[in-house]
Amino acid sequence: MAQRIIAAVVLIPIFLALIYLGGLWSVALFTVMGLVGAHEFYRMLAVSGYHPATWLGIVWTAALILSGWHPDLLPLDAVITAGLFVLLTYTLFQTEQ
User: Fold this and answer.
1) Which of 2, 74, 81, 89 could make an S-S bridge to 67, C-beta 3.0–4.6 Å?
2) From the centroid of its chain, how far is CA 61?
3) Rounded Cα distance, 97 and 7, in Å
4) Reported pTM
5) Between the CA of residue 24 and those of 60, 69, 90, what are the distances in Å?
């Protein structure tokens, strides 16, 4: 419990500073947080006995976050369409493990 409190005391000011600075700092913070969350999600699926496409999901998560930051560079509809196409193609050719 003490370790979590110490981590919170150290990390909360860093997070608030990055959000306050805005721009690329906030994008980097939210991207890292999203990627850590996606990695944790896929790790829980693997522990539960599923075989997720971890790297595809993590790349897709990064693309979704970055499309929100710069929609002219990465339009959301293109990111969703390409992600679904790649994921379904990967699933089609995946063999039983």
Assistant:
1) 74
2) 4
3) 39
4) 0.81
5) 19, 9, 32
Tokens of 18: 């990055």
CA distance 3 to 66: 32
- Encode pLDDT of 19-62 as tens digits: 999 889 999 999 999 999 999 999 999 999 998 899 999 999 99
Helix axes 23-47, 54-69, angle to 10 degrees: 160
Query: How does the average pLDDT of the chain come out, rounded?
Result: 91
Percentages helix, strand, coil for the chain, rounded to the nearest 5? 80, 0, 20
Do residues 56 and 41 make contact, with C-beta atoms less than 8 angstroms apart?
no
**Distance between CA atoms of 51 and 34, rounded to whole angstroms?**
20
Other C-beta atoms within 10 Å of 5: how many?
9
